[in-house]
Amino acid sequence: MKLFTYAFIGLSLTTLPLTSHADAAKQRTINTGYTNAEAVSVDPKTEITYISVVGQMNGVDGDGFIAKLEPGASEPTKFLSGLNGPKGSQIKDGKLYLVEVDKILIIDLKTKETKSVNLPQAAFPLDLALDSKGNIFVTDPPKNSIYKITNGTVSTLIENKKLSYPNGIEAMPNGDLLVASWGEVTNENTWETSEPGRIIHVNATGHIIDRTEPLANFDGLETAADGYVATGFNDGKLYHYNADNRKVSTIKKYQEGLADIAFGKGVTYTVNFNNSEVGIEVSK
After folding, report:
1. Beta bridge partners of 81
2. Is the Cβ–Cβ distance between 180 and 230 less than 8 Å?
């Protein structure tokens, strides 16, 4: 969802390392008290962290909002209220690109001026990514689709059951897309799966060129300095994907409900959907 550097990732790790006292001193958790915090993004210019808070999961009700966490602050504050189920986000050039229940919002972080692009064909848009050309790509899990927005015009890039409820998404440097899927859903109300999700490589023309084995019910997906990281929602694990050799390794274990992750300058932020806690880990 966002383009930041994961400074302390250990690619060769396949098991969870023990946490020392020194490591623990660099970690803290903020209990926000919010309802259903879903996504997190960091502004690379200001290092302010923005948190998408869905509110009650009942559609167009205006109880969602964006919170912001200033560097070093002990708790976040509300930045923009009255939103409808805000979810995945990405920051680029001082603007926050945000998924709502039926549209994409583009919010100026200085003025809060907001523009929108409607997604009339979407069932449940969830995450987005921006490529170097300014195209916006949006995942829609129930429709097994990815939409492409170019200059405000929406088209379906791909609709394919092999996307397995596409959730997190990132644009790759070559213009392709990487998708973290939830899995083979057997109950659309509970999102129960018969098979967990995969990391899926989709090329720029909307064709699937590679899928990993089933791994986890994936939620967020991030670009790191040396690959990509995906959050396993139900198992609370953080996974690393190497795009060169297509290998996946487990980096770390968090609590169940791990929804998203973002990287600042030497700081990693996580958000847990189940308890709306924000984790902060300093790596320098």
Report:
1. none
2. yes
